[in-house]
């Protein structure tokens, strides 16, 4: 059974006893948001990340979700991507295609991956252009507060260093406020060239879910939710603070092991 909780200004915490329980809760959550969005807007615009996230979404490929979700209304984006060929082992697109997209009836033209034939800078510019066109046609909503796109759901993982998407600690990309999509060529994790949503775009989403598992992420999660670093700095995950949207953390007990709120760890 998930142990729900709320941390002041840090969203809803859902701590799960088992990985299977987390996967089921995550699938229920995504399916419900999809249903609401399709009923309200006629579309479901979802941005994915890489890492273990796709595997944790795996129950969406199974009964009942593969039959009950209106996959024809899904529009797929990536909150970050490695600037490699689509069939490269490091590609977030390939990860999602192999683990999810090829197993459910999503319309191929609704899958918006980056142009993998150009530089990181060109790929970021091109991806922002694509998103801007889809904002114009209302496939992606627009924020009421700024001109940023308002994705129905952005799914993120968490690095052991506190990074989210491809926004790494102390990196200048964290300060980008004008662009929707930016690029980096010096990622501390290989491959070095990546594109990423900027913080204003992430924080403009209707819903942001951060999925974190494993004891190796416990320190980063503690800094993301409860503590500021000893030097007063904020890790990138701490900067995820939807302006008007909802933030939910999907956690296993190992990742949540260093959270101090005893009600969540009992």
Description:
- The protein has helices at 19-41, 53-56, 65-68, 92-99, 120-136, 199-202, 218-225, 262-265; strands at 3-6, 12-16, 44-48, 74-78, 80-82, 141-142, 149-150, 153-156, 181-184, 194-197, 207-212, 246-252.
- 27% of the residues lie in helices and 19% in strands.
- It has 266 residues and is an alpha/beta fold.
- The protein contains eight helices and twelve strands.
- The model is unreliable at 262-266 (pLDDT under 50).
- It has a single domain (12-252), classed as Rossmann fold (3-Layer(aba) Sandwich), CATH 3.40.50.1360.
- A hairpin with a 6-residue loop joins strand 6 and strand 7 (149-150).
In short:
One of its GO terms (cellular component) is cytoplasm. By secondary structure, the protein is an alpha/beta fold. The chain is built from 8 helices and 12 strands.
Strand element count: 12
Q: Please give the domain count.
A: 1
Which class in CATH terms? Alpha Beta
Helical segment count? 8
Q: Sheet bearing the most strands, described?
A: 7 strands, mixed
What portion of residues is helical?
25-40%
Strand order of the largest sheet: 1-2-12-11-8-3-4
Helix/strand/pairing category: alpha/beta
Radius of gyration: 17 Å
What is the CATH T-level topology?
Rossmann fold
SSE ordering: EEHEHHEEHHEEEEEHEHEH
GO biological process, one term: carbohydrate metabolic process
Family: Belongs to the glucosamine/galactosamine-6-phosphate isomerase family. 6-phosphogluconolactonase subfamily.
Catalytic activity: 6-phospho-D-glucono-1,5-lactone + H2O = 6-phospho-D-gluconate + H(+)
EC number: 3.1.1.31
């Amino acid at each position: 059974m998930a142990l729900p909780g709320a941390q002041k200004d840090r969203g809803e915490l859902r701590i799960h006893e088992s990985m299977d329980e987390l996967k089921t809760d995550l699938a229920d959550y995504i399916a419900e948001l999809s249903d609401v969005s399709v009923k309200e807007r006629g579309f479901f615009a979802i941005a994915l990340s890489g890492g273990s996230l796709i595997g944790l979404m795996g129950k969406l490929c199974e009964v009942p979700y593969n039959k009950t979700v209106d996959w024809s209304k899904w529009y797929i984006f990536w909150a970050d991507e490695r600037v490699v060929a689509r069939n490269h082992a490091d590609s977030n697109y390939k990860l999602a295609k192999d683990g999810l997209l090829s197993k459910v009836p999503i319309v191929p033209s609704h899958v918006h991956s980056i142009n993998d034939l150009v530089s990181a800078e060109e790929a970021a510019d091109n991806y922002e252009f694509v998103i801007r066109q889809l904002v114009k046609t209302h496939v992606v909503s627009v924020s009421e507060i700024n001109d940023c796109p308002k994705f129905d759901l952005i799914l993120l993982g968490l690095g052991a260093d506190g990074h989210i998407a491809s926004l790494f600690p102390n990196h200048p990309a964290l300060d980008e406020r004008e662009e929707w999509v930016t690029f980096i060529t010096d990622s501390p994790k290989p491959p070095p060239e990546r594109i990423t949503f900027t913080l204003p775009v992430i924080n403009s989403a209707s819903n942001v879910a951060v999925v974190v598992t494993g004891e190796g992420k416990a320190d980063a999660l503690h800094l993301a939710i409860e503590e500021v670093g000893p030097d007063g700095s904020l890790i990138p995950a701490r900067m995820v603070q939807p302006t008007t949207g909802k933030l939910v953390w999907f956690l296993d007990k190992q990742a949540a092991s260093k959270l101090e709120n005893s009600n969540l760890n009992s």
